[in-house]
Amino acid sequence: MGFFSKIKKLWGGESETAQQPAASAPSEAPAETSAAVVDAAAADAPAPAPAGQGAPVLDEAWKSALAASLHGSRARISEWLGLLLKDLHTADDALWARLRFLFETLGAPASEADAFISEFTAWAQAMNLAKIDDLRSELRYRLILSLDLEQEEEERKNVFQKLTHGLAKTRERLSVGLGALFGRKGELDDAFWDELEELFIMADVGAEATRKLLDNLRSRARSMGVTEAARFREVLSAELDVLFPLPKKPKVAAPPEVVMMIGVNGVGKTTTIAKLAYRARLQGRKVLIAAGDTFRAAAIGQLEVWAGRVGAGMFSKSEGADPAAVAFEAVDKAMKEGYDLVLLDTAGRLHTKVNLMEELRKIKRVLEKKHPGAPHKSVLVIDATTGQNALSQTKLFHEAVGVDEIVLTKLDGTAKGGVMVGVAISHRLPISFVGLGEKMEDLRPFVGEDFAKALLGQ
Ligand SMILES: Nc1nc2c(ncn2[C@@H]2O[C@H](COP(=O)(O)OP(=O)(O)O)[C@@H](O)[C@H]2O)c(=O)[nH]1
Ligand SMILES: [Mg+2]
After folding, report:
1. Most buried of 34, 66, 131, 287 (most Cβ within 10 A)?
2. Nearest CA to ligand 1 atom 1
3. At what angle do helices 190-202 and 207-224 cross, to 10 degrees?
4. What's the CA-to-centroid distance between 382 and ligand 1, angstroms?
5. Strand duo 431-435 + 443-445: pairing
6. How far, in Å, from the CA of 124 to the mean position of ligand 2?
7. pLDDT tens digit sequence for 341-374
């Protein structure tokens, strides 16, 4: 059961109809008017705790300010966070009282509010953090996931900015060339197409994918009736907007959902497993991490540390154990103990390529036998800074074991974004998440349109 299951989807997102948090979905949200909700929440709220550092806690003005912000038509996470943390210096009873007021005003069940607060407190203690400045971004991330705000305008902008930053190098290179090309007068002649081809190749799209992309662009230009260079930007934007297929939600007939993580060493597979486990935990799922990379004891140890930190269960065997046996026994444990999600780490030693692919295929067979439908997804992790290797890795893994979706890591570095255009064109595989840093909160859903915009510039 997820946190705040009752109050999710209260805000309208992109939709035209402004929704009121307390009145949008009568079957899910309390039916009282906002004023009544605020009063009831105030009455039920625990007696204000001693104020931290003399900060005013839950005074009437503060309560009305937060209530007004909550009852707006859009989710404004920064504004709420600002109010929640206003004048506080350490995480103490004042913060918990404010959070309780927030949740109660939204009509959240008290038990879920308590669970949120106690989990957050436990995290802060485990990390040995008490200062508000150190806790701010973690609290923001937890609120976003718990309240299902990731697709909200403000949060999308936030991720878009990071994406824009990571793709700056590629964009600079592309946009100068494209700008010059589109700025000139004249028809879409051979010289135009030749120069466009060169630009894509320089941006790491890859030779084969570039040829396909040019074919697509030619027919799109025709169907849009664009014949001159000056209007070609519209054609390119339209093509890139629909380039990235959306990830499919896997059908899971019976829990647990089993996800097999694959990819070569160093791309960020283990870190991504930790981030995915963390997200799923914050969304209220029970997660088991399975150490299928048995090649090095250190890999098992690293995963164990992560499982502990993110509050996931862990299944491992000794170094050198058969990875398929790990997969089998992990799923067995997950079924017996009621886990919702199993994330299986695998080895990524490419120099023994044939063995690795054989091993991955065996894991898949064993999983399917143990739990029909499993693995529900094979997720390939790719390092966005590696350029053309991303293309060859996708080809290799996809042909050998079948990839369902891609997670693209290290987009915070000097990413070579063009290669993902190549991967999308050559393999038509969806990208589900992007890694934007090393922190747990730095894994965000991939939005194709935003990626294309960050790549091309506006
Ligand atoms: N900057 C950045 N570093 C990352 C990201 N994802 C993983 N890393 C780092 O990449 C390195 C290798 O990660 P690891 O998960 O051990 O890779 P694995 O060998 O594929 O399991 C570690 O130092 C991670 O912290 C990311 O999105 N951004
Ligand atoms: Mg690893």
Report:
1. 287
2. 437
3. 140
4. 10
5. antiparallel
6. 26
7. 999 999 998 766 678 999 999 999 999 999 999 9
